[in-house]
Please model this.
Amino acid sequence: MKKIVIDPITRLEGHGKILLYLDERGGLKDAVLEIPELRGFERFCRGRRGEEMPQITERICGVCPEAHHLASAKALDDCYGAEVPEPARLQRELFYNAYIFSDHLLHLVFLGGPDLLLPEDTPRAQRNVLGVLQAHPELGKEVVRVRARAQKILDLIGGKAIHPVFALPGGVAKPLTEEDREEVRGHAQAMVGLAEKMVAFFHEQVLPDPGIQSLLLSDECQLPTHYMGLVDGEGAPNFYHGALRIVSAKGAELYCGPAGEALSLIEERSEPWTYVKFPYLKELGWKGFSAGEDSGIYRVGPLARVNVAERMATPLAQEEFERFFDHFGERPVHATFAYHWARLVEMVQAAEDAARLSEEDALTGAEVRGELGQPGEGIGVIEAARGTLFHHYQLDGEGLVERVNLIVATTHNAAGIGLSVKQMAERVVREGELDERLLNRVEMAFRAYDPCLACATHFLPGETPLVVEIYGADGKLLRRVAR
Amino acid sequence: MGRTGSSCGVSRAEAAVVALGNPYRGDDGVGPALLRLLKVTGERKEARHASPVTRHEIDLIEGVHDGLRLAEAFLGYERVLVVDAAPWLPPGEVVRFRLEELPASAGYFHGIGFRAALELLARARGEGVPEVEVLAIGVPEDPRFGEGLSPAVERALPGALEEAIRWLNE
Model:
């Protein structure tokens, strides 16, 4: 038998690691999460037919293909000036709420589970998904069961569970039948049932924990930034469409208007020491890696969306939204760890909204494609589970792609993630020393954001390790740790 | 995840070949390329009686996804062969090994590691874990966007196909 030597780091080069930069005294100066770079993507797309984009872009990311698929379809609706008929819009929204539910549920219980559902002193060997299942077997089993039902909605509407194929410019591929509706309705009701249980579980078993309270309320865990997210006409978060709203760190409205136009409000900062670009609000300017009202740094994702919202769209989510803000006693909420709780609020809305949409008469309507006009420029904006996602295309007169620009959620959050990691790590980094406590804290900081890393799309070379590199003031690598 | 029951059984087959990789990123798509070859082999009329792809009930599955979703596709099978690109092997080299030989790091950066996901689902559903083998095909590091395989990786396909068929016959 041939001996196989596999370096787990190989696949990760440049695909997701945390870089810590020290100052001359050995203290922590900056922290950066390296995220995947889409090298050559724009050139690859140039000259392809616009209609191919929903299938191409959803393969960029193995974590949220649903978000790319629909953001791309929305950009194409805009490129062709197409009105999406009501039945098609309802299909897309229902599909999208099932995706948000499924993704948030996975994160709350299993990805963020070691931070939320296990005591902080849990031994490393049990600080994982299997430890979560062992500690909460009944919840774990129900989560697996109901998540599979949400996946069935994705399968049924999307055509394929992993890489959906249903959304087309101006609509969707085919109408749903009444039989389909019946099946979807049953799944959506199960989602609402689990969402209610999750809320009760969170309040009974998670929130009372003093460690969790400290992560939510202590001064050292607050990161005041601006926030961005889509809202509907009533000011509730909407994952699929709406106006883009930006509020400042003090809660003042900085922008509320067409989502596509918001691209002109953002600039990207390049730093010589990393290829990661850091978006910021142009009007406020780049003030370095600092938080606060004067900084241009903003955040997206669940916490941002509840912070920009006036209310939630559904009754149970509204109740949880009120409990959330009552707990903190202020708006916006700045605790990075509150991303998890905001995720729960949103998960409830996604379940309730999926159930509501499954009852809409027009869901099974036959008209599923709008008329396409002449191809041109278009922008599609959607709320991926991790935050605002922009697809911006320019098509030529033949409908071929001339230009593509994507801004993904984890890019918006790049500066915020670095600041959160720094905040959690700076007390425990001295002279390049790394210990278990630091690694745990670093993990907790970035995990709250649920960053999307394309490295998760592969099986080999095994489980994706956490890699942390520490650089001295002279730029030399002092230490590299992977586990 | 596209699932093709090569011999169209209504119930799930006992074995599955799962191909990972992005066909839009050159050699990264070697897994799906091998899957297409397996499908063609199964569909060739003259090979119908001889081909293990049709003789055995197997499902051919293509997908790129995080651990849990991938693991969901595995449960219910007795045996699974995963085909994936391997940047740590010389381009074109083909190696088959058991899942247990993969290193598993204690932590994870994003998503659930595959082995943990498989065990999680099996325990939660009270099902057995399938016997998983991996067919790794060496590719150059850091594939760029583009379609098609490089000559070195393309040349490895017949050998990889033979290895996959050998697995089916075991």
The radius of gyration of chain A is 22 Å. The first strand of chain A starts at residue 17 and ends at 22. Chain A touches chain B through 65 residues (CB under 8 Å).
